[in-house]
Design goal:
mainly alpha
Amino acid sequence: MLDYPEHVFSRNRSDSPATPAEVPPAAVSGKGHATPKRKESEAARRHPLGAVDRKQAARAQRATAKETRDREYQAMQTGDERYLPIRDKGPVKRWIRDFVDARRSLGEYFLPVSLGVVFATLLTSGNVTAGIIVIALLYLIVAAVVIDALILRRLLKRKLEARFGDKVPRGSLMYGVLRAFQMRRTRLPKPQVKRGEFPS
């Protein structure tokens, strides 16, 4: 029987592999915390700063729009060219407004007269002859207003060509005619001239 040294079969404790308990903390792999759930990750990505910025931007935009509207409204009352809407800006539009406001047009009386005619029609509903007279009167008023509008359009065209030449924007004649159909006190921008004060 062979006599082997004792150290061949004996297990040396110092050479045994280290147990997990003996591994230093720095060598342990992992994040050191539990993996977050999907809902928690999505909630973390939704940064609240973006929502706050959008609300602040919306508030700033509303404030700017209100300031612009206030300036335009004030300009409508005073005729300040700097803050008038694009539709009413420019020397041509200003001249048209002054010409129309200085002139007494039949169109500015069309709405109240038409309401009066409609009321008269209701009152004369039982009288055929009176009803025909009222309807004929309404047609006569409409014809007179249309003729007056055509005369105004021709006047505007001739005077604008003489004063501004080819610098008259498109739609300027219709701009003046439509203004003539508004009652003077309701016109915007407000009239800046009195009756008879025609622009030069």
